[in-house]
Automatic annotation (TrEMBL):
PROSITE patterns: CB (PS51900), TYR_RECOMBINASE (PS51898)
KW NADP (keyword) present: no
Listed name of the protein: Tyrosine-type recombinase/integrase
Family, similarity comment: Belongs to the 'phage' integrase family.
The organism of origin for this protein: Lysinibacillus xylanilyticus
Pfam families with a match to the protein in the record: Phage_int_SAM_4, Phage_integrase
Entry keyword set: DNA integration, DNA recombination, DNA-binding
Ranges for domain Tyr recombinase: 106-293
Recorded coiled-coil stretches: none
């Protein structure tokens, strides 16, 4: 079977199985260049592709200074592609199964309290100075991301019907394609109520989405990315990524450093398993040191 046709069938299968558009785009971005590389190397048919083709392609990516995380994603996507070909009976073995992912240094960006205060102060000044919808909206984006720990896509898809002011919750369309409950504090609930009143006074008709453009249109990925590119330029922070997910990491770090137990953090972060949560606890937690100080065997001896 021609490799390019196998690739097309794989993408069609992902769509048929209702894979998210983001994942489909990732498959295209990560696998298609590899397919093109194989064809250039003379591996026109699926059966011509070998373990060495993938290994040499990954070495080339490394020489092009692609980051380890990117290379690991290529490996995972390639494994999924060849698993599909095995399941369909097109090939016998997955040539990617013995390729190991690269070790990655763990660095998770979070904002300091000072950086958060700078961002909030900046938008508050902008709101007071210009009295514009966008300045107020951008302030609320920062407050919701920091106070609720939701993801970028969840923020974009958030509708006013998803906000329960009485019970102080949000219903967000989560990562696993199901609605999940996120809790609001009194302070954030009041901020959202005031923002809704301002939004209603700014437009003739109320949009169903919480965060919209100046033209009363729903946010897109490009819109939110533009907001954060602008914020990054204004703040000029060093060694920290100014992004929605950094706010989520900051939300999680604050829970860990407040000695919230791992199970509660998992539920508040809406992680699918405790392993993900434990990764953050191990990175930021102080309870291990406290337990060691309390129970260390040397405590039983006088020096």
């Amino acid at each position: 079977m021609l490799l390019k046709f196998a690739y097309d069938d794989f993408i069609a299968d992902r769509k048929f199985n209702n894979t998210t558009q983001a994942n489909i785009n990732s498959y295209k971005y990560m696998i298609k260049p590899f397919i093109e590389y194989c064809i250039e190397e003379g591996a026109i048919n699926v059966e011509d592709v070998t373990h060495n083709h993938l290994k040499n392609y990954l070495v080339m990516c490394q020489q092009q200074n692609k980051k380890p995380n990117t290379i690991n994603t290529i490996i995972l996507r390639a494994k999924a592609f060849f698993n599909y070909l095995v399941d369909e009976g097109i090939i016998q073995d997955n040539i990617a199964k013995k390729i190991k992912v690269q070790k990655v240094d763990i660095k998770i960006d979070t904002f300091t309290d000072n950086q958060i205060n700078q961002m909030v102060a900046f938008y508050r000044v902008q709101r007071k100075r210009h009295q514009s919808y966008s300045s107020y909206r951008n302030l609320l984006i920062v407050l919701v991301l920091l106070g609720a720990g939701i993801r970028r896509k969840e923020l974009i898809m958030l509708k006013w019907d998803d906000v329960d002011f009485k019970n102080q919750t949000l219903q967000v369309h989560g990562k696993s394609r199901k609605y999940e409950t996120v809790f609001l504090t009194d302070k954030l609930t009041k901020e959202l109520l005031a923002f809704r009143a301002f939004s209603r006074s700014s437009f003739k008709t109320e949009c169903e989405y919480v965060f919209i453009t100046n033209k009363n249109e729903p946010f897109t990925i490009n819109t939110i990315d533009y907001v954060f590119r602008e914020l990054k330029q204004k703040m000029n922070f060093k060694d920290v990524r100014v992004s929605p997910h950094t706010f989520r990491h900051t939300f999680c770090r604050n829970l860990v450093q407040s000695n919230v137990n791992s199970f509660t953090i998992m539920k508040l972060m809406r992680h699918e398993n405790i392993v993900t949560t434990q990764r953050y606890v191990n990175l930021w937690g102080s309870h291990l040191k406290q337990e060691n100080d309390k129970h260390n065997p040397l405590n039983n001896f006088d020096f």
